[in-house]
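One such shown below:
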Amino acid sequence: MELSLTDLLLSVRMDRYGLTDLRLTEGAELSIRCGSRSCAHLVLSGSCTLSVDGGETVSLKAGDYALLTHGTLHRLQCGTATQRLAANIRLLGLEDSVPIQRFGEGIPGARMLTVVFGSERIRVRPDDSIVPPLVILNGASAIVNLADANRMERLNRDLLGHGGSALGASAMHMLFVQALTEAVGRSYPSGVDSRQFSPVSAAIRIAAHRLDEPWPVERLARSVGMSRSVFSALFTATTGESPGHYLGRVKLTEAERLLRLTDLPISKVAGQCGYRSQAAFTRAFKRRYQQPPERFRSEARLQGAKQGLSTPMA
């Protein structure tokens, strides 16, 4: 089975979203930490510089987008730094409307929509990460129709009103995919052929697109033209996990997402995540989350209600 670039890009999920309307004043320098999560900024108004620890410094203006992958430490600065501040946005959550966070005192310098999220690393070969620590898209706001100075009143209404985080998250996901596409284009100007993908990466993405089907190791190995023993050894050497353990974790992560965001019956969640029975799914889920799926969903709904999160989809 061949794997296209679209398959590769669409299989990279953003999860554990957190959004904020970040506002930085003139003279403020903000050091940002986000743990192992990735972070992205879309400048809505004003301008600033962004510096990556041990790396490059770039200027950002209204409409520009910056993607910083997997915990890249960075600093945002407006003008000459007279106030040095720090923020750890690792635990930033997803509220109904986008919350405002102000840093510094004085004249407004830059305003940006900031998202922090989890995502897997994507590779063409095991030793080759496609996405560099920093990806810049100039004029990215045109892609999602945000950050137009003439639309600021509507922007405030859209992002700061009810459901604003859904709009913001959708816009930032679109820009994330665009950033990945450009990163691939820069690394592979002649294009990426599915035959270039490492067998392990290809097998993972083939299974992820058909998660409702059983994927024993033998079938995974056949999907990339390898023997079971050679594939298993390569898989473990590349990921640090056995194929069965890795895919089990992927299935349960998808089950967690479905329990949080949909009203699907538990049996349907189990089926969509590749479990042959609800009982088998419940046992696996309890081993990882220390509670059955029904209780997990109830507690997630209760927590979401307290935080003002939107109603799950049917």
